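Thread: quick sanity check before group meeting

JM: Hey all, I'm pulling together slides for Thursday and realized we never actually wrote out the predicted structure for the chain we discussed last week. Dropping the sequence here so it's in one place. If anyone has concerns about the input, flag it before I start.
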Amino acid sequence: MTEKWRTLLIPIAAIAVLSIVLFFPREQADPLSEEHGHSLFEPTETVAELTEVEAPVEEVAEVVSVAILVDVKGAVKYPGLYSMREGDRLLDAVDQAGGYTEQADTRLLNHAQRLTDEAVVYVPVAGEQPPTFEQAAASASTESSATKVNINTANESDFQNLPGIGPSKAQAIVQYREEHGGFTSLDGLKEVSGIGDKTFEKLESFITLN
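JM (edit): ok, ran it. Output follows.
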């Protein structure tokens, strides 16, 4: 090769190398940095989108409570009729009536007994001779389930089974009945000496004319 051609090739080679350095595409030098418009380290979905879970909806069942009427008698502070809820216990009825008096005898009472509509709760006085049907009444049975005493046919022994009636009052009832030809109403018992409103209230649910 002549000296003339050698002199021409050197500048041409230098220009070619410079062109490659200046005009080679920069984005191709790092093909792993971006792909399909996303950086390799750029998350395509947020954590919230991946972990979002719909909370379950709890269904609350509606409980319907039925009202009942209970008659509370005897050694409680405020005897009377009380509106209770179905499923209430005997002790709930006593609490509604103000609680027991100091004379109350609670040994035969079942405080856990469930109440029913038209139930009678009778609380005896300490030392009082319980009637034969007191167990049913005290445990909140209905009035119709109790054995009632016929005041026109009962003898003194039968009357002594009634709450608040001792030997002397039983004798007075029989004597009054014989003198007046019997009773025409239950309230007629209050005409007997020694039987007032409070005593009558205790035994009203346990007597009958039939």
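AS: nice. Residues 76 and 100 are 4 Å apart (CA to CA). Helices lie at 3-23, 47-51, 90-96, 134-138, 156-159, 167-180, 197-203.
JM: adding both to the slides.
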